[in-house]
Amino acid sequence: MTTTSKIIEEFKLITGNKYVVTSKWGKEPFNKGWRYGGGDAVAVIKPGTLLEIWKVLQICVKHDIIVIMQAANTGLTGGSTPFGNDYDRPIVIINTLRINSIQLINNGNQILALAGSSLYDLENKLKPLEKEPHSVIGSTSIGASIVGGVCNNSGGSLVHRGPAYTEFALYAKVNKDGKLELINELDINLGSNPEEILVNLENNNYTSSDILKSKKLGSDDKYSEIVRGIDENTAARFNADNRLLYSASGSAGKIAVFALRLDTYKAPKKSKVFYVGSNNQDDFWKIRREILRNFNELPRLGDYMHRDCYDAAKKYSKDTFIVIEKLGTNFLPSLFEFKRIVDIIAEKIKFLPEKFSDKLMQFLSNFWPNHLPKKMEAFRDQFEHHWIIEMTDDGINEAEIYFKDFFKDKKGDFFICNSNEGKKAMLHRYVSASAIGRYQALNKKNIGEMMSLDIAFPRNEKNWLEILPEDINNKLELKFYYGHLFCHVFHHNYILKKGVDAKKLKKELLEIYDKRGAEYPAEHNVGHEYKAMPLLTEFYKKLDPTNFFNPGIGQTSKLKNWK
Ligand SMILES: Cc1cc2nc3c(=O)[nH]c(=O)nc-3n(C[C@H](O)[C@H](O)[C@H](O)COP(=O)(O)OP(=O)(O)OC[C@H]3O[C@@H](n4cnc5c(N)ncnc54)[C@H](O)[C@@H]3O)c2cc1C
How far is 227 from 240, CA to CA, in rounded Å? Predict the structure, then answer.
């Protein structure tokens, strides 16, 4: 048997020493999930080209090593990292972020996204063409990748586009005989063998005549119709939706994706953010129904936040907000690197506390003045429920007339944000996802576990705001609610009281959602947190018959050949 150190040398010959990480500290940001899960890998490999990925995969197949494909590692359910240490084979993580190019094709109506390219870069690349990406998610602002989004069928904020989806992909799979295969479903003539295909793609070595016209979809073309179905008793979107499971789409790392071909969309000429507040949840129920049923123009985006979540994000996500606002998304990797170094040093210095970097950042953020606009703060004092709705073009006028009329005899209210307020409102909502993690890091000693549920309610659900039975409520220290209200997709973040059995509580909560016809996970994918539905497990087994990639996902078997 080849020793691990010999295998590591083989990897190094492909990528160079620098890009094969084996030290404990070096591996940590890749081994640990953003919010959930973690485990060990023998190495984290950061290939610089598609061909290097292919060669690394060949070595892994040869030595029977598990591969976990990873991009920005912002997945929230542990699906982008190892989980625990009960695997039957060693693991290698292939992180793709160095391979970040995006190629425009078909006059910018479509793009080819290489494995590590980000949604943020795509937005910037499309701006001069007055186009925009298929998908905008909360983590666009922190560097989430295009490919990771499609692999997770990530949902996000866009009301009319639906989950990230495409039927065009270039990927490697390990077939039932244990052989590595490259599958070109991009419908672009790139060559006849894997090496040729990968090099030609990476070097832009194809012409427009190589790009075949195809009936396949480069995005979800049905969602705007589905989301308007307000009387339907099924969810608008969720991860186990058979409609959207197609090779790379929804594959959750069960193949290795090299590139995807996706649609782009015409950017609106104008857009305005409406900030809406109310103390009556039924107001939002009515607004949702009336807008989805009657408006000619669907909102571009519409995210809900409860006041408690607003407060938590204001306090615990303030530093992230300020860093993104002042220094930009591209600075975040440096920030995380800095945090990690601080924690390494702190661990060696006995008198410094656990999670020192979080404590330090939290402390420093207190010195920064209030970062939120005055009008939002006034709404915070007046209203429990907040809804950030972006309208575009003719929809702006439609919404203004509608909201003026709607609130003339009600206690709620709205205002139209100027561009600075609009940006801040949106960023505040996006960074709210990290508030719970910070809260837990700061208060670990006195509280129980953290739990985050990602739920899609049926489109006709009236009681969208959770009202929990007394006995369950008593087990919770804190609840933060936010979500994509038009889509009826909600994120219920809980901090449990100390000593509460998290597994039991989760089961109780999921039983309540089951009774209400909800689907879960809605958009964060199963990771290691949720059990995959039989339909999803079958999809994974078909993609990966020997269980070579990301085993254990959706709480399935971690063993070779799915034993
Ligand atoms: C602050 C914050 C806000 C968020 N907001 C949203 C939101 O609004 N909506 C939403 O749906 N999600 C959201 N997420 C979750 C997460 O960001 C998304 O799932 C995102 O699409 C993951 O992208 P990534 O590049 O980080 O992928 P990763 O986390 O690195 O990977 C995601 C999955 O894709 C697989 N994968 C990655 N690259 C490849 C590849 N080349 N080949 C095969 N498999 C691959 C991984 O194995 C994993 O299973 C949020 C997360 C955070 C931290």
Answer: 17
Q: Treating both helix axes as pointing N-terminal to C-terminal, what angle do 318-327 and 307-316 enclose, rounded to 10 degrees? A: 70
Both structure tokens of 352:
């410094």
C-alpha Rg value of the chain to the nearest Å: 23
CB 411 within 8 A of CB 279: yes
Quick one: angle between helices 394-406 and 281-294, nearest 10?
140
User: What is the pLDDT, as a whole number, of residue 351?
Assistant: 67
Residues 6+ apart with CB under 8 A from 149: 119, 135, 137, 156, 164
Strand partners, 303: 388, 484
43 touches ligand 1 (CB under 6 Å): no
CA distance 377 to 262: 39
> Would you say residue 304 has pLDDT above 90?
yes
111 versus 431: the higher-pLDDT residue is 111
Kindly tell me the burial class for residue 43, based on how many C-beta atoms sit within 10 Å of its own C-beta (0-12, 13-18, 19 or more): buried
SS (H, E, C) 108-150: HCEEEEECCCEHHHHHHHHHHHCEECCCCCHHHHHCCEHHHHH
As a whole number of angstroms, the distance between CA 122 and CA 133 comes to 7
Write the CA distances from 84 to 54, 88, 315, 553, integer angstroms. 27, 12, 32, 12
Cα–Cα distance for residue pair 299/159, rounded to 1 Å = 6
Q: Which atom of ligand 1 is nearest to the CA of 251?
A: 44
Average the pLDDT over 206-216 and give the result: 95
The CA distances from residue 231 to 117, 234, 290, 294, 466, in Å, are 38, 9, 12, 13, 20
3-state secondary structure of 188: strand
* Cβ atoms of residues 360 and 243 within 8 Å: no
CB-based burial, 174-196: b 16+ in 10 Å, e otherwise: beeeeebebbbbbbbebbeebee
Rounded Cα distance, 351 and 346, in Å = 8
| 13-27 pLDDT per residue, tens | 999 999 999 999 899
Q: How far is the CA of 35 from the centre of ligand 1 (A)?
A: 12
**Does residue 47 surpass a pLDDT of 60?**
yes
Strands of the sheet with 110-114, listed across from one edge: 102-105, 110-114, 256-263, 168-174, 180-184
Q: Is the distance from the beta carbon of residue 47 to the nearest atom of ligand 1 less than 6 Å?
A: no
- Probe ligand 1: pick from 118, 145, 157, 429, max atoms within 8 Å of CB? 145
Ligand 1 center from residue 29 Cα (angstroms): 15
